[in-house]
């Protein structure tokens, strides 16, 4: 069993895509943490109900972990460990959508390694030109779900993360075009739910 930490945004979707591409037969579940005070995914600002809809669309089981507001790291890790321990199947890997922030990767490898888990980073240091076609050409929409205050003059919640926006962001030195530094967050919207299934979206997902 593999557990993909699912935020509901583009980085998690990319991690899912590339993991499925290289491990088409691997068992997989999604894990999402959410603020127990309002049932919303922190940072992404996505309601847990929409995360559940995404998991249903992908035909993947969702493990949801409630966290207190402004959760400290020790409580975060305690609740994650408890949720993982409750799963009946042994866990092969924890999967993350980190792209190039070394400190975050090292932290994950350290704290989860101490719990006995190995970590995978399917999009780690991949070229932006390899990632963007997955987001822009697949039958999905990517919407901006949250924007850091300093960048609200440049980005708007609800704005489409499309080719035009990406080209604009690539010309700006103050914003990473993938929002890797937390400048903005995104939400994946699956199109044509009546005609598209998860296999058409993610290679090998069934």
How does this model look, in words?
- Residues 193-206 have low confidence and may be disordered.
- Helix 1 links the parallel strand 1 (2-5) and strand 2 (28-35).
- The chain has seven helices and nine strands.
- It is 35% helix and 21% strand.
- It has helices at 10-22, 48-58, 73-85, 102-114, 128-137, 163-170, 198-201; strands at residues 2-5, 28-35, 40-41, 46-47, 62-67, 93-95, 118-120, 140-147, 184-190.
- It has two domains: 2-124, HUPs (Rossmann fold, 3-Layer(aba) Sandwich), CATH 3.40.50; 138-190, no CATH class.
- The two termini are 14 Å apart.
- It has 206 residues and is an alpha/beta fold.
- The longest helix has 13 residues, at 10-22.
- The relative contact order is 0.19.
- The strands form three sheets. A five-stranded parallel sheet has the order 5-2-1-6-7, sandwiched between helices. A two-stranded antiparallel ribbon has the order 3-4.
Strand content: 15-25%
Mean pLDDT: 91
**How helical, in percent, are the residues?**
25-40%
Radius of gyration: 16 Å
CATH architecture of the largest domain: 3-Layer(aba) Sandwich
Q: What's the overall geometry?
A: globular
User: Would you list the SSEs in sequence order as H and E?
Assistant: EHEEEHEHEHEHEHEH
Major sheet: 5 strands, parallel
Number of helical runs? 7
CA-CA gap between termini: 14 Å
Low-confidence sequence ranges: 193-206
What's the assembly state of these chains? single chain
CATH fold topology of the largest domain? Rossmann fold
Strand order of the largest sheet: 5-2-1-6-7
Structural class by helix and strand composition: alpha/beta
Structurally, the number of domains stands at 2
> Could you tell me the number of beta strands?
9
The CATH class designation of the largest domain is: Alpha Beta
CATH level-4 homologous superfamily of the largest domain: HUPs
């Amino acid at each position: 069993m593999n557990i993909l930490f699912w935020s509901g945004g583009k980085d998690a979707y990319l991690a899912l895509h590339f993991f499925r591409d290289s491990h088409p037969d691997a068992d997989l579940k999604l894990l999402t943490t959410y603020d127990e005070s309002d049932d919303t995914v922190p940072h992404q600002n996505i309601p847990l109900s929409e995360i559940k809809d995404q998991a249903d669309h992908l035909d993947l089981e969702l493990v949801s972990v409630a966290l207190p507001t402004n959760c400290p790291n020790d409580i975060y890790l305690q609740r994650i460990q408890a949720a993982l321990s409750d799963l009946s199947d042994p866990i092969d890997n924890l999967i993350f959508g980190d792209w190039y922030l070394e400190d975050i990767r090292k932290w994950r490898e350290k704290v989860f390694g101490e719990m006995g888990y190995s970590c995978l980073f399917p999009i780690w240091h991949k070229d932006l030109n390899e990632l963007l076609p997955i987001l822009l050409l697949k039958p999905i929409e990517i919407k901006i779900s949250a924007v850091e205050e300093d960048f609200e003059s440049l980005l708007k919640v609800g704005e489409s993360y499309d080719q035009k926006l990406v080209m604009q962001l690539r010309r700006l030195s103050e914003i990473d075009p993938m929002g890797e530094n937390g400048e903005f967050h995104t939400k994946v919207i699956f199109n044509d739910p009546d005609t598209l299934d998860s296999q058409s979206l993610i290679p090998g997902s069934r």
